[in-house]
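Please, structure for the following, as tokens.
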Amino acid sequence: MAGDGPLGKIGAGGGCIICLVVTLGAIVVGIAAIVDGYHEIEEGYVGVYYKFGALQEGITGPGVHMKQAFVTTVRRVLIRPEETRMSSVETITRDEISIRFEGISVLSRTTQSKVIGLIKKYGQDFKRF
């Protein structure tokens, strides 16, 4: 008979099960996309975006933002003033006198409009130079 095989028994109820599975799958993927795309940038930072690993031109300020899920990553860059303590520095003067400096403290601040250019020139860890 035509309806005796395994596919013949699916009927109208089997089609509903397939629709339900597809719908649930779409809902799960949609929720995963929202969770992956949602991110927050804290005060004093800017968000820098990489799409498929390539640096994007746009940056975002503090607040809640959405990014393209699964293909875009976000990195936070500190732009507020930051104090860095250097280890001892030894230098030699023109007269060949050795001078050692202890406890040098450097105060730096990154301008928001120059973040992308600094990353392009020096890399993501440009503050370590």
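The chain has a mean pLDDT of 88. The CA atoms of residues 92 and 98 lie 4 Å apart.
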